Amino acid sequence: GNSVTQMEGPVTLSEEAFLTINCTYTATGYPSLFWYVQYPGEGLQLLLKATKADDKGSNKGFEATYRKETTSFHLEKGSVQVSDSAVYFCALVGAAGNKLTFGGGTRVLVKP
Amino acid sequence: GAVVSQHPSRVICKSGTSVKIECRSLDFQATTMFWYRQFPKKSLMLMATSNEGSKATYEQGVEKDKFLINHASLTLSTLTVTSAHPEDSSFYICSPKTSDGDSDTQYFGPGTRLTVL
Fold it and tell me: Exposure of B40 by Cβ count < 10 A (0-12 exposed, 13-18 middle, 19+ buried)?
């Protein structure tokens, strides 16, 4: 079956630091890949997505590139802000299905 | 963007009682509704999928008679936890999906925290 593995947190950073959250997946065919963000007290929100190999999703300064050869979709941001403190979930939808499979989530805490 | 509401946001109940959680899509029609459960510091676990007007399809290991799902309209779905017990304490999240051609994007409610004493 499909699975998503992402680095465990919490990740604690200072403001303006570089953030990377690793995500790797297992799936047959070419899944669609997503990053969701959950701010404190709120529901999950789609942050970015990529639907085919080598696509780069980007939003709010975050980027992730769909790497088929390494089955990865690492999330990066060059300069984080306190407002980026949240839990980040990597997820996929398999080529043949419509159900999201989530990674375990990574809590990020940005300190001023 | 799409607005999804859940009510209540948190509920505390006694063991043996039933709790109903409402999920509404406020500015779009949801032909498909997903219900998830999230344990502390864990990922989301899909419980069931329902299409408007149809019976829900439950994931393996999820008791359909305990977690009753109703998706009677395109803007409202409910999850009823029947005869709740402390092990049912969790964070429940609804996730409606539109049929707008973008089949891979889902929206999420803010969640309902259930505590069973």
Answer: exposed
**How high is the pLDDT of residue B106?**
79
Q: Which chain B residue shows the shortest CA-CA distance from A40? A: B110
User: H or E element: which one contains A75?
Assistant: strand A75-77
- The tens digit of pLDDT for each residue in A16-54 reads 999 999 999 999 888 999 999 999 878 889 999 999 999
User: In terms of Cα–Cα distance, which of A44, A49, A39 is closest to A82?
Assistant: A39
Between B105 and B36, name the one with better pLDDT.
Answer: B36
For the segment B72-99, what is each residue's pLDDT rounded down to a tens digit?
Answer: 888 999 999 999 999 999 999 999 988 6
Alpha-carbon gap, residue A27 to A31, rounded angstroms: 7
Q: How far is B84 from chain A (nearest CA, A)?
A: 24
The torsion angles phi and psi of B112, rounded to 5 degrees, stand at: -130, 125
B109 touches A at CB < 8 Å: yes
In chain A, what residues touch B43 (CB-CB under 8 Å)?
Answer: 89, 102-105
- Which of B36, B108, B112, B113 should we substitute to test contact with A (largest number of A Cβ atoms within 10 Å)? B108
Element holding A63 (H helix, E strand)? strand A62-65
Q: Which residues contact B38 (CB under 8 A, 6 or more apart)?
A: B44, B45, B90, B91, B92, B93, B111
Residue B104 has its nearest CB partner, among A51, A104, A105, at A51
